[in-house]
Amino acid sequence: MATRRFHSPGDADLAGLYRDLAAKDLQPLWELSGLLTPTPRTKAVPYRWSGKELRELGQRAGDLVPVGRGGDRRVLSLSNPGLNGSPYATATLWGAVQYLGPGETAPAHRHTPAALRFVLDGAGVWTLVNGDPLSMEAGDLILTPSWTWHEHHNPGSTPMTWFDALDLPLVEALESVFFEPGHESAAATEVRTRSLSERRYGGGPGLLPNDGAPAPAAHSPLLRYPWHATDRALDLQLADAQGNAARTGHACLRFADPTNGRDVMPTMRCQMHRYLPGHTAPAMRRTGSSLAAVFRGSGAVLLNGVRYDVAPGDLVAVPSWTSVAVIAEESVDLFTVSDAPVLEALALYREEAVPDRVTSEPAPTRRY
Ligand code: GTQ
Ligand code: FE2
Question: Homologous superfamily of 47-182+192-206+220-354 in CATH?
Answer without folding.
Answer: Jelly Rolls (2.60.120.10)
